[in-house]
Amino acid sequence: MQTTDDILQATLLLTTYFNKKxxxxxxPLTPTEYGRFAIWLHQRGFTPASLLSHAGDILANxxxxxxxIKTQRxxxxxxxKVSMAFALESWEQAGVWVISRASRAYPRRLxxxxxxxxxxxxxxxxxxxxLNTRSVxxxxxxxxAEDDEAFARSKAELAxxxxxxxxxxxxxxxxxxxxxxxxxxxxLSLGILSDSLLKSATSKIYRExxxxxxxxxxxxxxxEAGFSTGNAMARNKYxxxxxxxxxxxxxxLEKGGTWAGAxxxxxxxxxxxxxxxxxxxxxxxxLNxxGIPFADSFTVFQPVVRPAGELFD
Length: 313
Hints:
By secondary structure, this protein is α/β, with parallel strands linked by helices. Helix content is 43%, strand content 13%. The protein has two domains: 4-93, no CATH class; 126-294, Rossmann fold.
């Protein structure tokens, strides 16, 4: 009989690194590849857990229509059970929890917004219930002026006062200003990290939030992952998909993670994009692309999209 743990273990084997050495030696399935393979399994009456005991028979009939997921690659990934056991024990001791996309705790908004391309597993520390809380996202540059941080803090406090959890990426600058402001005023915050979950889990700036159950740090990348530009860019979509609306405090023009994430969101329409209406060239360009002007006088968060050009005040 298959269990939730069996599904989680099989999904981890297929999609996750278990240590830094593996980063150079193995190639886990990407979220899109895993989604394609999972659909094929489901259509034939299997789950990922079926591979733990019947991989040979199941894979004998596998052929990737895209030609990228070879049978040998899947077999090599499934053979890493010892590495997985050591990693899981280490992560558990550090307070890290792991859920697969089959779990009831998995974020509903990610499931609805991203479908089969959603992350196969999520790693986290802190209050897991925050994955399914009404949230407003905050994004912006790492390099910010005092005025930018003050704006992020004040609007994060406003979101908290209206019952929202503050979601951001955990980076220095706008991200941390919004998250820490939410926690400081007694609110909830969710950090979606692109790297270093284990390190962040022991950071003194997050210690009280984690202890008080007001904070969760979560990542679709394995807990010991180092910084990667690709992972940072990939992480952006999860902030938007998890939020009822997202505030852009400061964006560079046509470069950087904030611009990339905001412009992708405008194309994909995951969440209303509220752009601070200020002279920054990146902000003005996002407004021209369809972002919703966001005034300093804004007082009420609303999850509905207003027509482009109508000022939130």
